[in-house]
Write a structure and sequence with these properties.
Blueprint lengths: L24 H16 L4 E3 L9 E4 L9 E11 L3 E6 L9 E6 L1 E7 L5 E7 H14 L10 H21 L1
Antiparallel strand pairs: 1-2, 2-3, 3-6, 4-5, 6-7
The chain binds ligand K1U and zinc ion.
């Protein structure tokens, strides 16, 4: 079942997520619904924060075939490369906006999978960018907060106008 994605500047996107207490059927169902939502929105990642669930859970799929979803529960960055790179980012909560954000080139992430098994993922390329973007969501941070105040205010105005137009049309 696809869930509703919160849109910036919804204040709920700034909620700090709490750790998942138990990897149970409720969490597995939430992960499945988030994967459906990510695929339906043609995204490569999604954080629980974006569907208004404030627990530390993210889903990702950076495969070309779109059939290799990953579930990361209570993710923690255990290593970050000293090298950083500026990449163009987008966000399903800020549709139509793309801008440059500097991220670590590679990261190692410790997390539980949907069965509660601990694993460490060594991420680089798009996966590394996506993991850092999603972990920011869990801390209540949206990528536009890396941009200048001027850009952020322009984006906020554009998003509010877009949402007003959508409401008027429905
Ligand atoms: O969290 C999100 O809003 C999902 C977001 C993840 C992300 C991808 C790439 C850079 C930063 C963050 C997206 O899925 S954005 C849209 C997208 O589908 C995409 C973007 C870049 C490459 C491939 C796909
Ligand atoms: Zn995002």
């Amino acid at each position: 079942m696809a869930l509703t994605i919160l849109c910036y500047p919804d204040p709920r996107l700034h909620t700090v997520a709490k750790p998942v207490q138990a990897v149970d059927d409720r969490i597995r169902q939430l992960a499945r619904d988030m994967i459906d939502t990510m695929y339906q929105a043609s995204g490569v990642g999604l954080a629980a924060t974006q569907v208004n669930v404030h627990e530390r859970l993210i889903v990702l799929d950076v495969s070309d075939t779109r059939d290799q979803p990953m579930v990361l529960i209570n993710p923690e960055l255990v290593w970050t490369s000293p090298e950083k790179k500026l990449n163009e980012e987008g966000c399903l909560s800020v549709p139509g906006i793309y801008d440059g954000v500097e991220r670590h080139l590679s990261v190692h992430v410790k997390a539980l999978d949907e069965h509660g098994n601990a694993r460490v993922i060594e991420a680089e390329g798009l996966l590394a960018i996506c993991v850092q973007h999603e972990m920011d969501h869990l801390m209540g941070k949206v990528f536009v907060e890396y941009l200048s105040l001027l850009k952020r205010n322009r984006i906020k105005t554009k998003m509010v106008k877009h949402q007003r137009e959508l409401r008027a049309a429905s």
